[in-house]
Amino acid sequence: MIERTIREAYPQVFATLLKRWEDFELVEDCVQEASSKALSEWREHGVPEFATAWLTQVAQRTAIDLYRKNQRWDKLAPLLAHEMALQQSTQEAEKHLAQHEFANDDLLRLIFTCCHPKIALENRVALSLRLLIGLSIEEIAKALLQKPKTIEQRITRAKQKISALKLPYEVPRESDLTERTASVLAVIYLIFNEGYCSNNADHPLRTELCDQAIYLCRSLVALVPKHAEALGLLALMFGHRAREKARLSAKGSWVRLEEQDRTLWDQNKIREADTFLTIALSLQQPGKYQIQAAITALHNQASQFSETDWKQIVLLYNLHLEIFPSAVVKINQIVALWYATRDAPGALNELHTLYSAHKELREYPAYHVAEAHLLEAINENKKARSAYELALTHTKNSADKKVLIKKINAL
User: Fold this and answer.
1) Measured between alpha carbons, how far is residue 94 from residues 78, 87, 166, 210 in Å?
2) According to the model, what pLDDT value does residue 104 have?
3) Residue 60 sits in which domain range?
């Protein structure tokens, strides 16, 4: 309870202090110090009613103490006046924060700064997990299957990039908002995918990362409520999470969509996904997350696999390829087309044509699984087994490996 409260408050406290001090290293040290004090004091006295304000006050005092020691009076003077206002009761301080719109504005600035497109994507992800979610270096390293030193270097590079390019700590101008929000959504979706189908061999499903991605997307939607793709991504994540209890078997292997017990699907999450998708589509700003969410919704509407509206799904994949072409999406479109037409030879021919144009697919497990699936459909079991073995070679997720081994043994 205490750790969760601190983690949920972390990004807002960080954003609020960064607005005033404009120093990533200083603010991170101060928020960490406040978090440590909270762990100690709250265990003894309980979590205060206004936890975010408590953390903000303590972090702010720590920052002021550091500036006093360094005799930075020029910048300290106006902040001391602000500190005087925050020396009131916790409840009054919380009201003080609530009366100002900077709370949400600061969080939005922090999100866009961490996810700036001029920062390398892997560095954006690491920085976002650190500052927007409050994960430790060790937790990020474990989640991303990297060494702690590597993660620390990525975060340092991201901060250096922000400093070197003097990236503004601000909400983008309207003309830049679409591009910048797309960068934020890409990071959120990467975090979600790492949770939903993790590379962590011991934990193929990381629900905490899924929760954190949804939390970030909810925060973004609250700040930019009419951004259709943000709503679309939220719908997509809820649509996937609705199947969570049916995805993983007792033995720790993935259960294929056609074999899942659909009575285990969470209908509340499905309804929530549908609500977000409906709002997104009403804005008439089509995008890839909305299309993927619509495809997921069609799967979730079918009470059994045989009732899936594959023709509609093919049309949606066609639209996706028209607007946002991708070899990965093309694989999904080919498989959907096979389900809609049952023309396995034709689908297999399209798949091989795609492979010839995209040699990078040789290390993409989903390509080899799709090929094996179609080869099985035309009774080419020996070739199908070889395709499954290739997929296994390039698979890290333990749940995926168990499924593939089962298929290989069956053939």
Assistant:
1) 20, 11, 32, 29
2) 55
3) 4-100
